[in-house]
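Here is one chain, start to finish.
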Amino acid sequence: MAYVFRSAQGSVIAASATENLGKGWEFIEDNAKDYLEFLEGSLAENVPFRESDIQLARVLEDLISMLIERNVIRFTDFPEAAQKRLNDRQSMRKKTQLSKLVDESLNIIFS
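Its structure:
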């Protein structure tokens, strides 16, 4: 279930996954073609920003690990939700490293 706002020409120009935001917003099925095209277009426009977020997340993850290793902060200083996310990320990275050989200097992944 989603809601969309259309331009005067009828194309989707805004969307809300859960809320009717007022006058001019209409209900649309999640699998409606024009809704999916709008979402794909929105994601494509933000690719550089999303890629930057991913890279920054990796930097922050490495920084947190370094600070913990150097006893600047303790893992238990983080709220439980943050601890869970850090553990989940560390687990995912270990699984990925075990399943692939990575040569980061060449940007080549061998499976």
